[in-house]
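Hi W.,

Here's what went into the run:
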Amino acid sequence: MKKGLVLVCACFVLSCAALPALRPLDRPPVCPAPFLTEKTRLIHAIEAGAAGKTRAVLIGIALADPAARKLSAAVLTPEGVALLEASYGPSGAAVSRALPPFDSGELACRMMEDMALIFFAPAGEPVSRGASAEGETVCRWRAQSKGWVDVLQGQDGRIRIRRYSEGGRLEREIALSGDAQNPYAAIELQASERVDYSLKMTLLEAEEVKSAPQAGREDRGDKP
Amino acid sequence: MGRTGIKILLLILLVVLPWGVRADDFAQLRREAARITTISADFVQKKTMKILARPLVSEGKFYYAAPSSIRWEYTRPLRSVVVSDRGKTRRYIASGGKMIEDLSGGVQAMKIVLDEVAGWMSGRFDANPSFAASLSEGPDTQITLTPTGQNMAGMIERIEITVSRRDAAIKTVRIVESRTAETRIDFQHVVINKDIHPSVFREVQ
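Here's what came out:
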């Protein structure tokens, strides 16, 4: 009986989650645009956490092509062991190598979707623009699969990206702490799932990619 | 050079070079390595992957004391330390400016790796039945380890270890994961048989 009551209450709480209302502004705001515009390779140090504790420190490599909306990514241990190699495109995510904890496939796909949310501008035009209750300017898009994506900018210039479910439950919150020149210098992602997790990403290296990668051509050097 | 030329060259190499594995080759390596009680070295690791235009370079320090104590410390681009001493392996990661113990399952995988490395340091290259070991002599001794089972399929194609003929110390480890991915570790500034304080293998700050 108690379990049933808890379940009913949980359903009630979830059904009450609502997409935050946007306050209309006299002049619709210019939408924040931190997203990649050129094909770029980014290497980040990643602190992955759950339940408020750091669980793993990893190296994340992303090769993102915003024009094609395609993304290749690899996640390495500090020792250089590739735990995940995967790609993401309009048809979804494809995993080519996955070791624990990515071997279930579900976490790998979520990780790729997270990277796409961080690096690619939402597709199409915003469906609404306005201000949040905290006074941030907000542009709201329909997410490609389902749900909503808000891109917010505060008075201090800091940008946040939020993804909501169709019913308005907050699923992802991403804070970009870099400057306008390099918005991906520091990224914090908070995921609200069955098991919540967080990613704290610090940029080690970024470069625009003009041509196809040629493995082993020369050393990266010692200045990350 | 045509295909026939390459075949002839390969045939000459097979005849001239001592590619065949002899039991006493590994026994000799074990005898030479038995003289090593400690090793300390810097290392440079180059990770090559299809997604990278150039290898990702990591650096660190390596310490070994016979029979099986190891400290494997990366200093850049991320700091992480694995210490293994008296059968106990711990891994530390940098978080919030300090080193914290990694309590995830990853440490068990590192224990397997470090036990293998400790075996190599004492010359036991052919002790693990998961790998077939072959040995070739050149300016240095090269040992090639090839997985014998399917459990490493898609993960490791082979491991090549280059050992100095002068002092039996390992110079290079090359882990070939696939046609487009490999990890190469070059050991530099190698110091052999100089005392290393036991705390190096137990304490991480």
